[in-house]
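Can anyone check this?
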Amino acid sequence: MNRTYGVLISLFLVCLFLLWRTLKRNKQEQTLMLAQLKRYPLIQQAWTAALAAKEPIVRLDGLASGMLASTYDNNQRTDCHQMTPQGLALSKEWLFVSMYCADHQHHSQIMVYDRTSGQLHKQVILPKRPHVGGLAYDSSEALLWVTITGQGNGRVGALSLAAILADDSAETGVPIHFQYSIDVVAIERASYLTCHHQELIAGSFSLKKVGHLAYYSLAKAKEEAVYGQKGQISPRRLFATTTKVQSIAIYQEWLFMVRSYGPRSSEVWVFPKDTERFSRKTVSLRIKCPPYLEQIVVEDDRLYCLFESGATAYRHKTSWPMEEVLVLAIPLLLHKKTGFKRNRQGNI
């Protein structure tokens, strides 16, 4: 009996130690994040407000120290020190991050994180080496859409959630197969992606010229989705955008557009959702953010933000590399009294 009590006490102490270590690490991460966001007081306030909901912090471990990847030439599993975050998507239970190898030596891949614990659940090795600049999750069909490389048009691939969770590519080194591959006509490449109200919205990045934003019917995409064959869909709506657009997300009556390139501060431009002109003259609000912001995703009143500044290719170019998925309280971002830069014609 005494031995049993001893074992139980030992287990209790181990659990207590692990809990203490987790709380200590979370506290250290929060302190570091506050320091990182000092230059961006509005973002700092919105992050602190979201933190009160106690959602776990998702940290992209291994960006600098290396993470498991599959070599492109022979599918051997090795550590890659050049993985670069690009796309972000959410399901009810999972958070997905797409990454590509900046040295082009490894397959691109998708990291799957548990939203309850914030821990990495699995890695999924993708075919070839696409830039995977955008992800979008269609909850009605449990499909994850991924921007991939097309010829003459943008292209997206689709993976079912069931296929992702059953995949063993991280163990074998052999990439998963896209269930569907669809050309998105009217944009030269698909740089970013989102889903909203049964529409698949894709856009192209342009550094110095206008980019384009196209709205496609998800129902039409599903009609074209034949396993093992390439489909094609044309846009229902097509707009010109400004330069340096990395992603968009829609919140209630507003469209959020990320403009980001290089070590200068990124910005989130806020437009009325039904706007047809995306420019400095028509933007309602401009929110300054840390540099190298890639994809944003809206869920309820939260804005999830993914940065590539933690990657080896960029972390030396900024004082504060971001290795966490930043979660912000949107109502605070849009509050009239927060004092961010406002266009005179803005109506928030």
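Reply from J.R.: I decoded it. The CA atoms of residues 122 and 150 lie 27 Å apart.
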